[in-house]
Predict the 3D structure of the following.
Amino acid sequence: MKTSWRLLKSVCILSFLLGSCSTYQNLRLVDAGEDANVTLQVDASNVTGRPIPETLFGIFFEEINHAGAGGLWAELVSNRGFEAGGQIIPSNIWPWSTIGNESSMYVVTDRSSCFERNKIALKMEVTCDSNGMSTNLCPSGGVGVYNPGYWGMNIEQGKKYKVVLYVRSTGDIDVSVSFTSSNGSLTLASQNIIALASEVSNWTKKEVILEANGTDNGGRLQLTTTRKGLIWFDQVSAMPLDTYKGHGFRNDLFQMMVDLKPRFIRFPGGCFVEGGWLRNAFRWKETVGAWEERPGHFGDIWNYWTDDGLGHFEFFQLAEDIGAAPVWVFNNGISHNDQVETENVMPFVQEALDGIEFARGDSNSTWGSVRAAMGHPEPFELNYVAVGNEDCDKPYYKGNYLEFYDAIKKAYLDINIISNCDGSSKPLDHHADYYDFHIYTLASNLFSMSHKFDNTPRNGPKAFVSEYAVTDTDAKNGNLLAALAEAAFLLGLEKNSDIVGMVSYAPLFVNTNNRRWMPDAIVFNSSHLYGTPSYWVQQFFTESSGASILSSTTLKGNSSSVEASAIFFQTNGKDYIQIKAVNFGGKSVNLKVEVTGLFTKFYGSKKKVLTSGSVMDENSFSNPHMIVPHETLLEMGEEDLTFVLPPHSFSSFDLLKESSNIKVPISDSNQKTSTM
Ligand code: AHR
């Protein structure tokens, strides 16, 4: 141990010189000495005394790392309207590519689309033919274009996909629509669109259902022909039929969110909302209505194009589908590089009011009717809006904020308004229902920040900790060290939930083909996914929102590495006390729990532990379950409330109140592992 510690220290010193390892070094210093004893005194004399807000734990979805485009939004085609290359023609059609060379075909873009807000379409001139008399015979597979989607489409045997496209031609057409393997050599599904010139001389919508007869998670969509002529394509979409409720959400990623039982969802950003420049910010009106008519936009903060299939409507639908309260963040006239002065901000205020009406207005209202036409006549429940993101220090923020605040409160008195200014240390100088608090830091710092809100004045607006995470060298791609520090931080927020109203980790998703921010909670590619340890820590808090916090005191004895909390919750008519404890140090800790008050006798119920051999361990596609919570039935003797906290671990113990009518078995030691 000593030798390896010395070795580790040298590695750390070396790494420190290179700018890493700092927190890890601190963490190991805590390890010195024998196993520690810690006592948690829990006062259960008033289990209903301190309710935890119903909306305490939620999620934050940002269009970052291809979380939506190429992620949760199940659309397989990237740049479906050919707009991504810009409006100058002929434009770049990336990631589309051609099949065939200039002797048989060529493609350009032009401004011939039938859609006013996205005029660019693809024009393909085929110069080869399948006519045996022709001097320029097409290759047998035809010529055309293909789209690889977002680093390969996940085409699965037996699954059905709806392909929709708009087509126009000067002659008859025979276009083969196929899914193929990544290099086009294997056809996984195919159908032909055949039409006479009279039918397609104007733009025509065509739809085919393709059923895959093979699997390739790096597949592509091809549009090919062996017929000479001029063809235009626009708005080409390929959607799996089995998205959540047919609403367009990729099932596996959707389920990962639902499993966290989030009580709210903040969207659509983050910096994504602000934009590097206002002209590239997310503006909700550009993202509603028929998908074919959406212009899409280049998100210049995370540097990628999105077709905006996941738009304002879909975010509200998502919130409804996962049973979470929507928290809409809108642009307040401020981007990273430009700002609208307060005297000119009214159009942005109106845009926000219209966006709220879109969600909440009845179906006869101007914007409520747009929502109704999209298939949701009933209003969405929108009770929280955030005026911008991380803009408090910008010169026009306060002025702009007040314009938004007054106008929104005048129209919707009950809406909670979230300010970007931090009220945790000093009171805000403006009205707000919540203030946004973001923290990205090293592990030891976040661990100690479990006490951040202990001394915050109780009489101001509540904190919305809408972004937190351990980052940098302490977290890498998402490791146990980061997760344990976050667990301690969350325990502190849970205990301070009289003044902390809402909490969410950031970012939620990353497509590994385009990591823009590390670490993240859920890691995926076209076909696989896993949760990082930070994801699994959040899963320990699924009982917390709406439960009660019990007053508790941790007597730390010879350990400074433990943070713990106690909550009371009810489920299936039974009463539980749940103890959660993080052991940030490298030695086991004996945690003695002393409960005083209304009930003090318990049956063991469930124990859950998250740990691993090394704090730097991470899950991966090849080992997605290396660090996941392990659940066992909790064995307890009479009066025995001492639990062992393994080194570097996060544990929860569900204690069933004795008088609850059903006894649970306490001796079955079959281990159950949480799986995705
Ligand atoms: O979560 C990633 C980014 O971090 C968010 O877009 C921004 O709000 C913060 O700076």
Summary: The longest strand covers residues 229-240.
